[in-house]
Amino acid sequence: MKVVYEADQQRAAVYDQGQLIGQCVYEDKGDHWIITTTKVDPAYGGQGLGRQLVDAVVAAARKQGVKLRATCSYAVKVLAKPGYKDLH
């Protein structure tokens, strides 16, 4: 499985042999991004893919110097953990 950041689609996506099995989508609001959805195919649950997707968006936000917010309940929980305070 491969997690990739796709700036043109405003998301991080995970693929299994070329098939999209999950994504973390955000909206670009200029000085900040809002993560709206994090989904992984239930057949791939429990492998930490959701966290990897959020972390891929986090890495891109840090690289571009933008803050992150989330309306996605999963991403809200991740961003509340230690190590993400610089994004608020």
UniProtKB/TrEMBL annotation:
CDD domains: NAT_SF (cd04301). Keywords: Transferase. SUPFAM superfamilies: Acyl-CoA N-acyltransferases (Nat). Residues 1-88, 4-88 form the N-acetyltransferase domain. It comes from the Bacteria. The keyword Transferase applies. One of its GO terms (molecular function) is acyltransferase activity, transferring groups other than amino-acyl groups. This is N-acetyltransferase. It comes from Lactobacillus porci.
